[in-house]
Amino acid sequence: MKLVMAVMGLLLALRAGAAPLLDLPQYPQIDQHALERYAYLTIEKREAQARAAGELGCVRYCEMLERAYTRVTRAAREQGEAAHAIGWRLVVTTTRGEAAMSLPGGYVVISEDLIASLRLTEAEVAFIIAHEVAHVLLQHEAECLDYLQATLLPHGVRRTVRDLYAEMDYDAGALLRMESVMQSGEMEADYAGLLLGAQAGYAPAQMLGALKKIDAGGKQRAGIVRTHPAMLQRLQRLERLLPTAERVLTVAGGTRKIKNLQ
User: Fold this and answer.
1) What is the pLDDT of residues 113-133, one digit of tens each?
2) Cis ω on the peptide bond leading into residue 25 (within 30° of 0)?
3) Computed over its alpha carbons, how large is the radius of gyration of the chain?
4) Region at 92 (left for phi over 0; alpha for psi -120 to 50; beta for the rest)
5) What share of the chain is helix, strand, coil (3-state, %, to 5)?
6) Collapsing DSSP states into helix, strand and coil, what is residue 197?
7) Going by DSSP bridges, is the β-strand pair 100-103/107-111 parallel, antiparallel, or unpaired?
8) Tens digits of per-residue pLDDT, 63-120?
9) pTM for the full model?
10) How many Cα atoms occupy the beta-carbon half-sphere of 234 within 13 Å?
């Protein structure tokens, strides 16, 4: 699966201070309109639940969340026409135990409970948001559905988006087949999120504190299907990629200075 531009192209883009940095995929076999409609209904249901429980909306971290979200989505829009057209929307809850998630169409959900329980800094919050934004940009939900459709029998039969989600809800075997795809998507979102956060002006080494705190706080997701790779594996890979992210931060800072002078 493609994540960023080819290495030489990425280096040239960095030297020129140009965007985009991410190579955005397409999954034409999946009905994007239906996928976004499903996401919209899902987020409406989640908001209704949070509202009924008095848990919808930020209380303590509004300014920090707004800054981080604005900066990260600004960097996201620089990843090309398709990214610029996304109607990003942040949903904040105070629900205990809820972490962060994203859905196709630009929906990002984060709970202030996660921020408070882990004492996250702005750079760490920015990484979590950038990770979720990266899932949307790289169309990981569509990728999973595309993979599921390709592995279902009989082969060649097109399923609707709703049918594919129903398959995931009721067929544990389908989820197990998708485990490696989901884990790969998490690794991609980590790397892309690190680059987006750096392009937004956040120090890469500081952003990694989010994963370290999640690991130390025991908030790594658990279940029959391992949707996320081991935290040690994620951190080791990101630490190897820090020099590239630092370069993005340096170039992005120089680009902002030039724009401010114009």
Assistant:
1) 999 999 999 999 999 999 999
2) no
3) 18
4) beta
5) 65, 5, 30
6) helix
7) antiparallel
8) 999 999 999 999 999 999 999 999 999 999 999 999 999 999 999 999 999 999 999 9
9) 0.90
10) 26
